[in-house]
Write a structure and sequence with these properties.
The complex is a heterodimer of chains A (about 160) and B (about 180). Chain A is of the alpha+beta class and about 160 residues long. Chain A has three helices and ten strands; from the N terminus they run H-E-E-H-E-E-E-E-E-H-E-E-E. Chain A is elongated, with a radius of gyration of 19 Å. Chain B has a single domain, classed as Umud Fragment, subunit A (Ribbon), CATH 2.10.109.10. Classes of the chains: A alpha+beta (about 160), B alpha+beta (about 180). Chain B: Keywords: Hydrolase, Membrane, Mitochondrion, Mitochondrion inner membrane, Protease, Transmembrane, Transmembrane helix.
């Protein structure tokens, strides 16, 4: 009897330890949908994301992040940060009439990589930093690889 | 040496239970104090800064996406993610709210997945009338019981709903477990 109790306690302890690690260090999630198409598959990728950058440093433009959806608290979205607080961003680069918005303090402007099929900040506005869960650092399955900040500098010729 | 080895034994028997306790405080119930006067007279009815209410936070209800109008909840401040505030949910998605002074529009329809939060003390509260509708994902826990000033021990009282909100006919049920 005491043996059963001991092993049950061990399972509980390990499960809670894993959960704690997931909550504070890193975890993985399944994300699918067409909105991140060239970077992530439409049929579903398992990506790993970490909470440390947000806690000890700052998220930057170009980082891929996982956030709680502003329109449904039970769903997660995976988007790229286009603007950090104070940045002036184009609301919709696809539309012929360009409008600009300054990202309010504590918020991020998130967009999918597939602009023609993505529900993102163009639909729901700037996303509060409290909804951002973490920065995506790797794709775990299929074809594992590291995912870094995707920002590339454009060199202007004069 | 005997003391050190007994301490080590004690540590090995207690340390593995630390994650279990932390898990319980994060996803079950935890205690906390309330700062500020934005929820007067429900919480901190005495404006004395030294007398703070101790309340019980229920994280379990929010993990299962149970949101009700009239609940007192803790949420992350939308503009300052590190700051956690206590407010009351006044309206959920689809409801039309008659706003108060700093808000630019007279009426607001709460968008999908959002809520309208207000403090009970309307003059000393920075709430949705300042920062607009708040996404439900920012809500962290439900505040259900006052624990410490023992004369007010018990469930947090409801607040009359008033007539500033026109409620939508059917709210979406934010509860994954009930649907499955």
């Amino acid at each position: 009897m005491s043996n059963y109790f001991k092993s049950a306690a061990l399972v509980l302890q390990v499960a809670c330890g894993v959960q704690l690690f997931n909550n504070y260090v890193a975890e993985f999630t399944w994300c699918f949908g067409p909105s991140m198409l060239p970077t992530l598959n439409m049929t579903g990728d398992i990506v790993g994301f970490e909470h440390l950058t947000q806690r000890f440093s700052k998220l930057d433009t170009g980082d891929l992040v996982v956030a709680v959806s502003p329109t449904d608290p039970s769903k997660l979205v995976c988007k790229r940060i286009i603007g950090v607080p104070g940045d002036k961003v184009v609301i919709d680069p696809v539309s012929p009439h360009r409008q600009y918005i300054t990202v309010p303090p504590g918020h991020y402007w998130l967009m999918g990589d597939n602009l023609s099929n993505s529900t993102d900040s163009r639909a729901y506005g700037p996303v509060s930093g409290g909804l951002v869960l973490g920065r995506v650092f790797a794709r775990l399955w299929p074809s594992p690889k590291w995912i870094n900040n995707g920002l590339e500098e454009i060199v202007e010729f004069s | 040496m005997a003391f050190v080895s007994s301490f080590r034994q004690w540590a090995w028997s207690v340390l593995p239970w630390v994650p279990v306790g932390l898990y319980f405080t994060e996803h079950g119930y935890s205690l906390g104090t309330v700062n500020g006067r934005s929820m007067q007279p429900t919480l901190n009815p005495d404006s004395n800064q030294l007398k703070k209410d101790v309340v019980l936070f229920n994280h379990w209800a929010i993990d299962r996406c149970h949101y009700n109008i009239g609940d007192v909840v803790t949420l992350r401040h939308p503009d300052q993610p590190e700051k956690i505030v206590i407010k009351r949910i006044v309206a959920l998605e689809g409801d039309v709210v008659q706003t108060r002074s700093p808000y630019p529009d007279a009426h607001v329809r709460v968008p999908r997945g959002h809520c309208w939060v207000e403090g009970d003390e309307m003059f000393h509260s920075r709430d949705s009338n300042h920062y607009g509708p708040v996404p439900l994902g920012l809500v962290k826990s439900k505040v259900q019981y006052v624990l410490y000033p023992l004369n007010r021990f018990g469930k947090i009282p409801d607040k009359p709903r008033g007539n500033r909100v026109r409620y939508a006919p059917g709210h979406k049920v934010y509860n994954r477990l009930d649907h499955e």
